[in-house]
Every structure is written in C-alpha cells, then in structure tokens.
Design a protein that fits this description.
Elements: E1 8-14, H1 16-20, H2 27-37, E2 41-48, H3 52-65, E3 68-72, H4 83-90, E4 95-97, H5 99-108, H6 116-119, E5 123-125, E6 129-131, E7 140-143, E8 146-149, H7 153-159, E9 174-181, H8 184-197, E10 202-210, E11 213-222, H9 225-242, E12 245-248
Parallel strand pairs: 1-2, 1-3, 3-8
Antiparallel strand pairs: 4-5, 6-7, 7-8, 9-11, 9-12, 10-11
C-alpha cells in the first residue's frame, strides 16, 4: 500500500427489522467511528433485507470495490439468520460446522441449553476465521476482506477490539467542529470558497436545533492536524467578518 492510498470500507446492515423501522440502526455509527480512529474511511453504507440472493450479490459487489466490508446482523440462531450461509455461497465455500466455534458455544451454555437453534451459530463458511465475542459467547467470523458481526449493538461494540490485529488502516482521520448560531444559506458561499481552497480535506455542514434556535455545525476532517488548523482559521475569519455567533470551537 502506497503512502497516499486511502483505506476504505463498506458497511452492510442486514435485517428486515431495520428496513421496517422496528429497530433503529446504531451499528453504522459505532463501526464508522471506530474505523475512522484507525484511519479507514467508510465510503458506502447499505441496508438490505434477509434475502439470500440480495446478500450474495451485495457482498460480492462491495468486496470488489472496498478494502474491507463489515456486515451486521443475521448470524443468530433463528430461521431468518441467513448471513453465514449466504456468505458461504458468495465465496463458493462449503457451509459447515466450525469446530472451534462449536467448542466455544458448547462451553458457554449450561448442559442441556446448547440446543439445535444455538448450534446453528457454529455453522460458517469453511475455513472462516473467528471474531471472538467477549459478551455473549457466539463468535463472528471473517472470510478474506469480509467481516461478519452480530446485529445487537452492545455485543457488536464489544467485538471491535478483537479486530485490531486483523485490519490495516491508514493515518487516523481527525476532525474539528465549529458550531454557529446561523443558517446554512448565510454561510454557503463562504464555506464553498474555503472548500475550494482546501481540496485535500473534507468540510461538512450540519444544521441543528437547540434551545429553540437554529444553528449549523461545520465539521472539518483530515489526516493532518495542520491542514485542519489552516482551514479552521479561514472559516473563523469569514465568521468574524459576518459577525456570526460561535457556539463552540
């Protein structure tokens, strides 16, 4: 990997419950923040249903264009948990019991509790590498650049640390936020000029509503703190000229 190569990733949220609105997705934010901290930029997020062909096609598409792909959901014990089987087909691998995963789960559950449904969580693509689960026993897994994690947010979050040695990132992506008491239309032209002068970093503007008043948060992102500092000064200069109130810097 060359020095200037940007390491990217895609996140694939799998589950009818997300699409129906019954469950709110928080895993995207958790994974994206963690990836940013190790220098990996999320370039795409997709939400798809528990449909085998859709999972296979989407995984095969994303793994070709992204350095890493992270899936969440569909690796539990119920009938609609079909991610592991679908990943097996995406890679043309046998779907079988992972001996180590079976031993982990067998030891985790009390005698008589390791039923057929729970045994399903030990079925994975052949030669899958385990992602250990310090919270509830059931491991995730990865095949090549595809990492399959559970959908339960607290469990997923506890498993990310175990991926640290399996993933190679770039420089951590730094950010700085300037929040203003204004509206986007008031700063749009000036902000666009600053972005044109700083093409090698990202500037985003995000409206917010707080204490009955409108505001805009400007977020600057870059791998270089010096570039953030330079850009921040240019933004603060036009803010001072326009006499816009700064909520926080």
């Amino acid at each position: 990997m060359t020095k200037n190569t940007k390491v990217n990733a895609a996140i694939l949220i799998i589950g009818n419950e997300i699409l129906s609105g019954r469950t709110q997705d928080t895993n995207t934010g958790t994974i994206a923040l963690w990836l940013n901290s190790i220098g990996i930029k999320v370039n795409e997020v997709r939400v798809i249903p528990d449909i085998e062909d859709t999972i296979i096609d989407t995984v095969n598409n994303l793994r070709k264009v992204s350095k890493y792909v992270f899936t969440t959901g569909g690796i539990g014990p119920t009938h609609d948990d079909i991610t592991a089987q679908s990943i097996s087909k995406a890679f043309n691998l046998e779907y079988e019991i992972h001996v180590e995963a079976f031993k982990i789960l067998e030891a985790y559950y009390k005698v008589g509790e390791f039923n057929e449904g729970r045994q399903k969580m030990a079925w994975m693509p052949r030669n899958a590498h385990l992602i250990l689960n310090p919270t509830s026993g059931a491991p995730g897994f990865n095949i090549e650049n595809v990492f399959c994690l559970p959908g339960v947010p607290s469990i997923l979050k506890s498993m990310l640390g175990g991926l640290q040695n399996k993933i190679v990132g770039g420089k951590p992506i730094l950010s700085h936020t300037i929040s203003l008491r204004t509206v986007e239309s008031e700063i749009a032209k000036s902000l666009s000029d600053v972005q044109d002068n700083n093409k090698d970093l990202e500037i985003g503007s995000y409206p917010f509503f707080q204490a009955g008043k409108l505001g805009v948060s400007i977020v600057i992102r870059s791998e270089e703190q010096s570039k953030i500092n330079k850009c921040s000064k240019q933004i603060l200069d036009f803010i001072d000229e326009k006499k816009i109130e700064v909520v926080e810097r």
